[in-house]
Design a protein that fits this description.
- By secondary structure, the chain is α+β, with helices and mostly antiparallel strands.
- The chain has four helices and 17 strands.
């Protein structure tokens, strides 16, 4: 954690491919095609889901497990992956799905153990002198380290002065950084990078996903665990998402608003100060006009 003034900055994971993969697998298992949202966080996620779902098949490091009417195969799968989250029991009519991203990258050239001294605290660190370039990216005030690995993957790092407000904001910043680095200018006054070693193990109850619906099913449980280790050799991410979907009771699906009493109709044009047309419409004119010709 880091202090900014009187506030403490804490880690905020912004990773959505694992969640997207899990949701896509739920859709596949129940034969549905899309999700319906019941809150603004789900609406933001659905935009990410729609953008990422076509890429999921290319992420070979994601594995799945499914349980029909039981969580046993899913929870056993998570245990085998050294993941601590576990779904609660489900009924015979429910389905459980877990996805696990297991991503290991090695720096192109191994770094050296080092230290970072910050506010009288010594943190274990890595010094990379080769296989890294430092750039200046538009809309990011601090320089960006772009580290090459032994695969096509690259790892980017830049200091932020404010903690992202949510996982969505972390993800959005990451997207802007990736796009911005494509046209970044080299910061010639830097050579290499020194960064903290990382040992992260964070669990989250994804309560904002509860109630998300599709074709008579809704999300009843949603858990996430993210592990990240990073040292002079490379970085290892293992992230898991587990979801239980249950059949929605009859009548629980959101219903359309029914205008079944006399109502006010308003036509608004943004360039006008007042409504362009308005009418109170009672039953005396509720008829099928056949067409719109007059």
């Amino acid at each position: 954690e880091t202090r900014r003034g009187n506030s403490v900055m804490l880690t905020v994971v912004g990773s959505f491919y694992t969640i997207t993969a899990c949701h896509a697998e739920v859709l596949r298992e129940i034969g549905a095609s899309s999700w319906k949202v019941v809150n603004s966080s789900q609406e933001r996620f659905l935009q990410i889901f729609d953008a990422c779902k076509s890429d999921v098949g290319q992420v070979r490091e994601i594995e799945y497990e499914v349980g029909i009417g039981t969580v046993d195969p899913v929870n056993s799968f998570l245990k085998r992956k050294n993941i601590g989250i576990q779904l609660n029991s489900i009924s015979p009519t429910e389905i459980a799905v877990a996805s696990v991203l297991d991503l290991l990258v090695e720096w192109m050239l191994e770094g050296h153990p080092s230290n970072i001294l910050k506010e009288a605290v010594k943190y274990p660190a890595v010094l990379l002198n080769q296989g890294v370039r430092v750039s200046q990216v538009k809309n990011f005030p601090n320089p960006v380290a772009i580290i090459n690995t032994r695969t096509e993957d690259m790892v980017l790092m830049t200091i932020l002065t404010e903690q992202p407000a949510s996982s969505f904001e972390t993800f959005e910043l990451a997207c802007k950084l990736v796009k911005g680095q494509e046209s970044a200018e080299t910061a010639w006054n830097f050579e290499g990078v020194k960064f903290p070693m990382i040992d992260l193990d964070a669990q989250a109850n994804l309560e904002w996903l509860l109630g998300m619906r599709t074709d008579g099913w809704n999300v009843g449980q949603a858990l996430q665990q993210t592990r990240l280790k990073m040292n002079e050799k490379g970085a290892h991410v293992r992230e898991a998402v587990a979801i239980a979907a249950e059949a929605s009771p009859p009548g629980e699906e959101p219903q359309p608003l029914v205008i079944d009493k006399p109502f006010l109709l308003v036509f608004q044009r943004p360039s006008l100060k007042r409504p362009l047309f308005s009418a109170f419409l009672a039953e005396d004119c509720w008829r099928n006009p056949g067409n719109l010709d007059m």
